[in-house]
Design goal:
With 381 residues, this protein is α+β, with helices and mostly antiparallel strands. The protein is built from 9 helices and 15 strands. It has an 8-stranded antiparallel β-sheet. It has a 5-stranded mixed β-sheet with strand order 1-3-4-2-5.
């Protein structure tokens, strides 16, 4: 620890090695371990830790953090601590990144304001601390700790709209490493993005139905062409390329996921009827949902790496009510089912509130046209 670190370094209290040793010494028969421990937990401090070698900083930070939680669990099981301040399913986030060296003081101020905002607006948030590398102060390591992450996905979107969040993210010029909402000591688990928040996302019947869906993020690219045009095919190819790059990057950082189904919105330019347009003038937006742990900074860096930052967007699909049905067969034979779905929506006293959306459950390159399955879905209101 250094005494000349700027006072703008800020962290909400997190149990560290020195405090940990004090508590271990106190966990002897007859000592008031619980009171000492709770006193330590309830104390807010300015903590500044620096590590000489940036390449080892992340591993050291995570090891020390995990040690705190493991120790508390052991102490609790031994009966020395009754109150569970760090549940067995504590989550943490870690970011290792570089900021503009000429703006370090501004960045430290933004860190403090960002932490104060989290403290007031993020349920389950416990602590935020950071490391600064001695040999290059532009490299920062931030660690966030949560007792639970219930509603964290929706919370992320709310927090990203805060003015301080934008200022904080703008400081970052390179993201080297990250882990988001990681369960301590968990195995790398391959997840399906929709299971936790949108369990019915890929379920549909051949008859029209209404359903509620939650919010999610998705990658998308837009264009104008017929479905069999090479521009549409290129957008799909690039979309899968980016999705797999994100998958591999996340897997290295403790997350893994199945590649979601391909989706597309189809619509007409304003003032025109889709049914009257030649296919060459159809507007489309190919898209793919992403798990909530795929952070937008990682998306941004991946798109830059492949020169696709002007092609793809990372968007939010808002929660709401939807009408849908499952179409079986060729894409060219959808018209009857589309009309049926429109009639159903009108009969419910609802109106279409978005573009025509298709979710392709089967790959047309591997499936005969009469065996294709497509969810046709509209947001309604």
């Amino acid at each position: 620890m250094s005494s000349n670190i700027p006072s703008t370094h800020f962290a909400i209290y997190s149990l560290r090695k020195k405090a940990l040793q004090h508590v271990r010494n106190a966990l002897m028969p007859g000592n008031a371990a619980e009171n000492l421990y709770l006193q330590l937990l309830n104390r807010n401090e300015i903590l500044q830790y620096q590590i000489n070698e940036p390449t080892k900083a992340v591993a050291a930070a995570e090891k020390e953090y995990v040690e705190d939680v493991v120790f508390e669990k052991e102490a609790r099981l031994a009966g020395h601590i009754q109150q569970e301040s760090s549940p067995a399913f504590t989550y943490f986030e870690m970011y290792y990144y570089k900021v503009d060296a000429t703006k370090l003081e501004q960045h430290y101020q933004n860190k403090r304001r960002f932490a104060e905002m989290l403290q007031h607006k993020a349920p389950g948030f416990v602590a935020y601390e950071w490391y600064t590398c001695l040999d290059d102060a532009a490299w920062q390591i931030d660690i966030y700790r949560y007792e639970h992450v219930a509603g964290a996905f929706g919370l992320n979107d709310q927090i990203e709209k805060e003015a301080i969040t934008g200022a904080f993210y703008t400081d970052i010029i390179e993201l080297k490493f990250f882990k988001t909402f990681t369960k301590l000591r968990a195995e790398v688990e391959k997840t399906q993005w929709h299971k936790a928040t949108n369990a019915n996302y890929y379920k549909a019947k051949t008859q029209p139905q209404l359903l509620q869906l939650g919010m999610h993020h998705y990658l998308s690219a837009s264009g104008v062409s017929a479905p069999d045009d090479e521009r549409f095919a290129l957008a799909i190819s690039q979309l899968y390329k980016v999705a797999y790059q994100l998958k591999f990057a996340c897997k290295e950082l403790g997350h893994d996921f199945f590649i979601p189904k391909l989706e597309a919105f189809w619509y007409a330019p304003e003032g025109k009827e889709f049914s009257e347009l030649p296919k060459s003038e159809w507007c489309w937006e190919v898209c793919m949902p992403m798990p909530d742990f795929v952070h937008y900074i990682l998306v941004r860096e991946t798109l830059k790496e492949h020169g696709l930052q002007d092609v793809f967007s990372f968007k939010i699909a808002e929660a709401g009510q939807f009408a849908q049905l499952l179409h079986k067969g060729s894409y060219d034979a959808e018209e009857e089912n589309v009309a049926l779905l429109h009639q159903f929506i009108a009969a419910q006293g609802l109106k279409i509130a978005g573009n025509h959306k298709e979710i392709y459950l089967k790959d047309p390159a591997k499936t005969a046209s009469d065996r294709l399955e497509t969810i046709i879905r509209y947001q309604v209101g």
